């Protein structure tokens, strides 16, 4: 299924705020609560959570009824014959008269004298208490005797903690519909990776290999060279890697050409060739193209080929054509043929020193003559 282009968008977020509080209720001289009878309670001080007043009610001999909580969050009383006959209960009671309904979740903890939790009970699904004095709680925990033996400490003290979470009114936030065309998406800055790598080359920091080229030494980083050149990868990391990694000697290459090649491998751009040598830019480009082909730098080779195509004249066309043939540069070769498009131009080219080198390749010379016949 194809999706249409999105011209605008909007969003919405449903949120509900909550307020949580905790109250610790301690019953000292617990033994004095004996004989309270079912339905009678000891009440904590009033505490406030979420704008509502609450209290903990402890029933030493249980209540006269229990409360059923239904799946929809509603609740109701259920009278049963075994309630109020000595089973301990603890309740959370909503005391507020004017604050309205309270949607609440809560948890009871019974503590020992060190404040460690011995037992817990909770209502995790929020329940709405609709009126003052409404109560929900932990019913029929166990018989009073068992309860005292387990929870009342040696100082005749019972400690209950209740954590209450009140849910406030939910609200929906809807954003304005916006046109995609109106969005002002910040444009990321251009990549500066080449700048950082170039600075690394110039500083020599972390260099782990050196090259001796025409009597000059160049420090470099094996990982950078291997990532850029399959030839260097084989020489530096492959089975035929150089045995002496301290300094590798490069034959048949000028130092200026190697420096320009290193510059490209780190910065991905051509060096200002006039700054490297007194040779003509065309001669440097020819040598750099040969070096790029030697080390498998296809992008550098293509750049050199394009620059040489724009700088063909009578004095350079013969050597450039021989170079194009030797290094399989089809576009450069065609550009040379296009330049030598007449017998007069051919005669002028034949007077140059480069033509002598060109004649070494007889098939190429024959192809050239056929082009201008």
Automatic annotation (TrEMBL):
Instruction: List, alphabetically, the Gene3D superfamilies matched.
Output: 1.25.40.420, Apoptosis, Tumor Necrosis Factor Receptor Associated Protein 2, Chain A (2.60.210.10), Potassium Channel Kv1.1, Chain A (3.30.710.10)
**Pathway(s) served:** Protein modification; protein ubiquitination
The MATH domain covers 20-164
Biological processes per GO annotation: cellular response to salt stress; protein ubiquitination
Pfam families found in the cross-reference section:
BACK_BPM_SPOP, BTB, MATH_2
Signal peptide position in this chain? none
Residue ranges occupied by any BTB domain in the UniProt entry: 207-274
Q: Which family does it belong to?
A: Belongs to the Tdpoz family.
Please give the function described in this protein's UniProt entry.
Answer: May act as a substrate-specific adapter of an E3 ubiquitin-protein ligase complex (CUL3-RBX1-BTB) which mediates the ubiquitination and subsequent proteasomal degradation of target proteins.
Q: What is this protein called?
A: BTB/POZ and MATH domain-containing protein 2-like
